Amino acid sequence: MVGAGDVFVGEVDESDGSIALYEPDVAVLNNVAIDHKSLDELRTLFAGFVARAGTVVLNLDNGESAALAEKAGYGAVTGFSLADPRADLFADALEPAPNGIAFELHEGASGESVSVRLAVPGRHNVANALAAIGAARACGVSFADAAVALVRFAGLRRRLETVGEAGGVTVIDDFAHNPDKIEATLATLHDFPGRLLVLFQPHGFGPLRMMKDAFIDVFARHLGTDDVLVMPDPVYYGGTTDRSVSSADIVDGVTARGRQAFAFAERADCGDKLLELAAPGDRIVVMGARDDTLSTFAADLLARLGDAGDEAQVI
Questions:
Q1: Are 237 and 196 a contacting pair, CB within 8 Å?
Q2: Cβ count near 209 (within 10 Å)
Q3: Contact (CB, 8 A) for 214 and 179
Q4: What is the rounded distance in angstroms from the CA atom of residue 101 to the CA atom of residue 139?
Q5: Contacts for 276-282: CB closer than 8 Å, 24+ residues apart
Q6: Sheet holding 260-263, edge to edge
Q7: What is the spatial distance between Cα 160 and Cα 173, in angstroms, rounded to a whole number?
Q8: d(Cα 166, Cα 301) in Å, to the nearest integer?
Q9: What is the distance between the alpha carbons of residues 60 and 69, in angstroms, rounded to a whole number?
Q10: Tens digits of per-residue pLDDT, 67-120?
Q11: Sign of the C-alpha dihedral, residues 153, 27, 91, 214?
């Protein structure tokens, strides 16, 4: 546990169902999207979570969480949006930058507005900022103080974390592991020029099997024509899990829809392919969860880029 005081802030988990044990004073729900469980299971878990809360902060731009906002029986509801100016908290005039994003923040109840510049990039982080503002306001923090606090947030490890640059190639480490998160990462990176060489390591054979079609769809829709996807087999810790769906199935589906993709059983071979392809101006993006060695892998790629040419610049 980090920090002190009489307020406890936690990220609760739906993957093991433990979210059903919480009765929060303030519940924040950014989205409901397929990941560890089916959508039907998730709808039940998240509906119960927000129903047990005193105040609910919901993302109105996500269809599933917006549907929850329309149900009766909840406590006070604060809705936030990047699309609907009628929301309690609304952001517009977004100005993306490689190392952050600026926007105008509006609060409907008070009529106040303020300019904000985040030190983390991406529209998804603007949505996260609105969620944080909603939670802070529910705890009695003033609108102005909450907005100022956003500026000091420097981000988290493995969330679009720039590892470094060598030979004109930037290496990025990212936690994206389900279709929604992958879409957010690719959309953020495509705000700026440079080919993407993406390594995606699925976080298990079970999630890969459940989200196969969604993985194919998100990469096919959000990879650029020059981008390249490279996939090793999923994380596997042994046991009797069903391994009938592999990364090669995702690659086959993505290539069938006109995008470039390669599958290798071993991650080391993926690294060799990425370095073979890499050219000045490219960005290598290492994606995946549940495996702490992904960060080591990203750092090793940077070091090998440095060995092949200019000295690596670690960020």
A1: no
A2: 17
A3: yes
A4: 26
A5: 277/197, 277/228, 278/167, 278/169, 278/197, 278/305, 279/168, 279/169, 279/195, 280/167, 280/168, 280/169, 281/168, 281/169, 281/193, 281/194, 281/195, 282/168, 282/169, 282/170, 282/194, 282/195, 282/196, 282/197
A6: 260-263, 228-231, 196-201, 283-288, 169-174, 161-166, 313-314
A7: 6
A8: 10
A9: 8
A10: 887 775 566 899 999 999 999 999 999 999 988 999 999 999 999 999 999 999
A11: positive
Q: Is the Cα dihedral 65, 71, 72, 73 positive or negative?
A: negative
Phi, psi (rounded to 5 degrees) for 99: -115, 20
Instruction: Write out the two tokens for 118.
Output: 């985040």
What is the reported pTM?
0.83
CA 296 to chain centre: 20
Closest CA to 199 of 234, 148, 225, 152: 234
Query: Token pair of 218, please?
Result: 């998100």
Which tokens belong to 50? 């927000």
Q: Which tokens in the block code for residue 261? A: 């993709």
Angle between helices 247-256 and 212-222 (to 10 degrees): 40
Residues 234-267 pLDDT 10s: 977 777 778 889 999 999 999 999 999 999 999 9
CA distance 66 to 44: 15
Q: What is the rounded CA–CA span in Å between residue 198 and residue 223?
A: 9
Q: What angle in degrees, to the nearest 10, is found between the helix axes of 143-151 and 123-138?
A: 140
